[in-house]
Write a structure and sequence with these properties.
Shape: globular
Number of helices: 2
Order of helices and strands: EHEH
Largest sheet: 2 strands, parallel
Strand order of the largest sheet: 1-2
Helix content: 10-25%
């Protein structure tokens, strides 16, 4: 998202600490850490993490669950 939208300010939320850190490193290595950041948290807690109406767009990649599980 950051690469395709050069004027966007981006906040990512990742529940797994190791993946949150990996995402931060990826942003830094690609020069995008000044306008994109990662919060290590559970998205289900969004009301306590983020102010209402503070984003123009929300994109989610829901967890994968195998069929019949």
């Amino acid at each position: 998202l950051a690469a395709k939208n050069p004027n966007a300010l981006i906040t990512g939320i990742e529940i797994q600490p190791n993946f949150a850190e990996l995402s931060r490193r990826n942003l830094a290595e690609n020069g995008m850490d000044k306008r994109a950041g990662i919060i290590n948290a559970d998205l289900r807690e969004y009301k306590s993490l983020l102010k209402a109406e503070s984003f123009d767009l929300v994109v989610s990649n829901p967890p994968y669950f195998a069929e019949n599980s």
